Amino acid sequence: MSLITLETTVGELVRAMPARARLFEKLGIDYCCGGKTPLAEACRAKGLDPATVVTLLSAMDGAADASGVNPDTLGLAALCDHIERAHHDWLREELPRLDFMTRKVAAVHGDHEPRLREIRRVFESFQAELLSHLSEEEQHVFPAIRQLDSATGDRAETVATLKAACARLESEHEQAGAALARFAELTDRYTPPDWACNTFRALYDTLDRLERNMHQHVHQENNVLFPRALAPARTTADHRVSGRCGGRAAIVKYQCLTPLPLLLAFGPRAAQGRGRRARGWMRNVIPITCALTLAAVVAGVKVFRTSAEGARLVWYGNAAHPYIAEVRAGVEAFARETGVAVHCTVGQEWTQDNQNVNVEALSTQGYRGFSLYPGDPAGANALFRLLRARGQQVVAYGAEPALPTPASFTVATDIQAAARTATEALIGFMGDGAAS
Predict the structure, then answer these.
(1) What is the DSSP letter of 339?
(2) CA 336-244-300 angle, 5° bins
(3) What is the pTM of this model?
(4) DSSP letter at 262?
(5) pLDDT tens digits, residue range 300-318?
(6) I need a labelling partner for 348 at 20 to 30 A (CA). Which of 20, 89, 159, 362 fits?
């Protein structure tokens, strides 16, 4: 479960917990085209009490539909596939039915209910524009996004082309949203009159489902797919950060993923593992990982752009754990040697909820920046956004939050590269032991 705050955008709330879309739909809050609107502002626009909406969202989170697909957990190619199956295919099946029903019901009942003719007129334009929109996505935009996911071709050139295409598609989404709002207005929120025939009632029911499907459809593109596809490209620049690791000298080497670096850590004492063979080397793994936070703290000092004396930084460990203990020792040693004031604290539970409560309380005490291990890839972003809204910087370490992220800087383990390095070192140590 992710933190619900009035500063969090409605798109971010649905992205973290897709089932929240149902409540927003009932309240008339636009979380797709209007996904970048903070919750408080969205509530005020609808004349709703923000605190009541937060209470309703919290209650709904406890009964979220586990069968729903969270688009934030899918890769770019898989998300394109999901959108085509769940939304494009649905539209191609339902639009012909709606075309028939809007024409028939307007012809039969238009004299008695003139708004039916207006519904037909709006639908004709909506259908023509939407079918062209779907073709553009399937023939040009989605293939380009899948190419990004496969890491083939010139990424920079593809992203530059996609940026203009996505902007155009988002503009078309707004036009579709205006048509959906018009349908809702003309149908009294899809409420048929008592005298309506079965086709009349089926029309209103399908228009209602069209709105809900389109809201999910546009949300998944505007707030998830497009931002992730347009995220800055990877660079190959190497950086080095030196500090202390649990009292031992350490050098961290990581590749920069602008603006989110993935760490490639090489153990400072790996060469000493020979005499201890594999077991001796493995004992150094946890101390080595504390370099993650050293890189985050050093980067954080630069991000916060303040002097060592003026920095009021927080390092937060999620819960008591050998990893957290080693990392904390390294951070404290770093603080002693550099003079950078870092307040170290550890939570009671390794959950995003516990981190939310503790960090939000700390954020009221004048600290300027936080180094946090995301408790949940998507849920952590809501907390990061809250801190940034309060003028505080955030460095995420240890695990990568969902992209795009409000975090100022991220350092996370490149698992594949780390596993390869560890395996090569282990094989080397085993070889040395066998030879001795």
Answers:
(1) -
(2) 75
(3) 0.49
(4) E
(5) 444 444 444 445 788 898 8
(6) 20
DSSP-assigned states of every residue in 279-294: HHHHTTHHHHHTHHHH
- What the block records as the tokens of 372 is 């946090």
- Domain 238-417: which CATH class? alpha beta
In angstroms, the CA 111 to CA 343 distance is 73
Q: Which tokens go with 353? A: 């909820």
Least confident of 147-156, 186-195, 298-307, 412-421: 298-307
Q: How many CB atoms lie within 10 A of CB 58?
A: 11
Query: How many beta carbons lie within 10 A of that of residue 298, not counting itself?
Result: 21
What amino acid is encoded at 205 in this protein? D
Q: What CA–CA distance (Å, rounded) separates 399 from 349?
A: 17
Tokens 């037909």 locate to 120
Q: 2 near 16, Cβ under 8 Å?
A: yes
d(CA 389, CA 378): 18
Per-residue burial over 218-237, b if 16 or more Cβ lie within 10 Å, else e, is bbbbbbbbbebbbbeeeeee
- In the sheet with 369-372, reading across from the earlier edge strand, the strands are 238-245, 248-255, 262-264, 409-413, 393-398, 369-372, 313-317, 342-346
Render 394-426 in DSSP notation, one character per residue: EEEEESPPSSS---SEEEEE-HHHHHHHHHHHH
Q: According to the model, what pLDDT value does residue 328 have? A: 79
Distance from CA of residue 241 to its chain's centroid?
28
pLDDT at 394 over 70: yes
More confident residue, 273 or 140: 140
Q: Quick: pLDDT tens for 76-100.
A: 899 999 999 999 999 999 999 999 9
pLDDT classification of 232: cutoffs 50, 70, 90: low
Structure tokens at 392: 């505080």
* Annotated domain spans of the chain: 10-61, 71-229, 238-417
Residue-level pLDDT at 416: 61
Q: Which of 426, 339, 412, 402 is nearest to 371 (CA)?
A: 412
**Helix%, strand%, coil% for the chain, nearest 5:** 60, 10, 30
Other Cβ atoms less than 10 A from the Cβ of 100: the count is: 12
Task: Pull the structure tokens for residue 345.
Answer: 């604290």
Q: Whole-angstrom Cα distance, residue 413 to residue 417?
A: 8
Which strand (E) or helix (H) includes residue 315?
A: strand 313-317
Taking phi first (over 0 means left), then psi (-120 to 50 degrees means alpha), and beta for anything else, what does residue 121 get?
Answer: alpha
